[in-house]
Amino acid sequence: MADGDPGVFRATALPGDPRLWPTVTNAFVGTRVFRDILHAAGVYSGAAGDTHRADVPSPLGLRMAAPGAESFTLDTWTGTFSHTIQSPGFTATHQLYAHHSLVHLMASSITIRRLDGSTHPITVQLQSLFVPQSQDLDLIPGPDFQGAHYLYGRTLVPEVEGGPRPAVHMLWTPIPPRLTLGGQERERRWDLLAAVASSEEEAKRSYDAGLALAAAGSLHRSHVHAWAELRRGCSVELDGPPALRQALHGCLYYLLSAIPPRDSPAGPFHGISPGGLSNGTRGEDYWGHVFWDQDTWIFPSILLLHPGAARAILLYRISTLEGARRNAREQGCEGAKFPWESAATGREVCPEEIYGAQEIHVTGDVLVAFEQYYCTTQDLKLFREDGGWELVEAVARYWCSRMVWSEEEQLYHIRGVMPPDEYHSHVDNSAFTNAVARRSLNFASDMARELLLPVPEEWEDRARKIKVPFDEERKYHPEYDGYSPGELVKQADVVLLGFPLMHPMSAEVRRNDLEMYEPVTDPAGPAMTWSMFAVGWLELKEPQRAWNQLEKCFSNITEPFKVWVENSDGSGAVNFLTGMGGFLQVILFGFTGFRIMRSSLLFNPTFPDDITKLKVSGVCYLGNKLEFTITREEIRVEVTETSRDPPASPLEAVLESGQRFPLREG
User: Fold this and answer.
1) What is the pLDDT of residues 424-462, one digit of tens each?
2) How many other β-carbons are positioned within 10 Å of the β-carbon of residue 515?
3) Is 157 in the same domain as 132?
4) Structural domain range at position 627
5) How far is CA 489 from the centre of its chain?
């Protein structure tokens, strides 16, 4: 249950299923509360399809035990989980958080506070399942450091034969079996730290920094400060139903926990998996692999609010380009084919061959993210100097080599694929796959012109002549060649042509696609599906129909900590960031009508009846930060900040009437 504050979730008992307990995560380290393992970003063990996040033993998976009434709180404003025991003469509070700016540090504190005038000692037991060993790492104890125990080792099996085995170094405060408040003490706090890094130096540096902050009494405050700064810069607030506001805060908490902090020099980013860093042990949450979920479902909202983190996500894809080139060669194609499931190398790690072989739309999905980023930031350095152009060119070459010319139709075909709707495979001309291939080729041509490079004629020719199935009689897009209306569909597929692809079509066709697929989409399908139907209906100014779709998402949000499940029956991934990403897109692209275009950011708001106001602070566009306040009566747009280096582009608001309003800072 949540009290009056929509960003604070409280309970007197934890859910019976531990998978639904909240997670505490930052860009490098994550765990589920009270769990005996944690994960470190990019640390996978196992070869190819067996690659999974390596379990690192967690010294902070401890739990207090004492007589009294228990309560559990997840505070999304401070990024902190707490467990409190209220006894007749004292309270004991255990806080746990993944430090937002010291990303190699997990911290825990236990405070015992006397409530009466008694002078007897008060003892709280600590229950811990911690064992300093792992099924995935060969761990060796090292010498203690600053009073901390030290353990280090490497993963047991590399992802590819002869490839690297990532290292883990961990320092942690020894955990006593009990803590006692002395008879003369009123209150005392114990800080317990765990530093996890890929090198001994980084682990020691992080542990040292944590100790210094703890000694000054400001360890938790420094985390809260960094987290609050992030939340302020990515603020989305609405006046509407309490359940919607709580869901929004839950989504922001779990999604923002997964991204690197602003101006973080903490090394390369390792991508976002559907269940986040806290999940992904062998057999759980797709083993921590990265899918199109990152690029299509999670990325757009991150881009709008935090382009630095969006850039880090793209750099992850650039770092896996060599693996993607090998995937293409193995399929007899040119260029680069991104894997359906990616870990550290970009090689295909999906345990079932059919998805890697056929669900090739992921390669185009990656490029759509690059295009959205460029249109929002005009960051040419990413393409000129940081490997972005090599990736764009490789994807264009892949699509050209994957197409075949149909003499009969005088169009290019892409045959033998699985569309996003995974109930169908071996189909020809998936509407979504071919549309995303066309968009890839158009962007590659545009980018070549931006960089003053020659544009291969083949790219433009194939983009013009690729088939995207369309039924002239019924005026809708069949999902693939031979699709029969009424056939069951697993999840959002053709509806994605309208958004995010913005494939050219009339309002009539957009409506027909929604009408055709809404009744035949499996109600037991994955959580992100309904958000895209909602965005479609908002685009057509049908807010009630949109709300009916958005409401379906609530059966995937579990109480009390707003942890999403992939499927409404509780199966699939948990802490399902993909569903949260789709939900956030309804608010950031549906209610506002934001569309990222080549030379503008469109907005055209529509609200369901129950929502009266939406305020989005920190929308980043061409070096400017904008605050949009939208009510039924008016839209206020304010430039709250402009970048000096590089200088921000001057903006103006242009109304449909043609009226123009220059937007200057303040």
Assistant:
1) 999 999 999 999 999 999 999 999 999 999 999 999 999
2) 11
3) yes
4) 233-291+523-665
5) 25
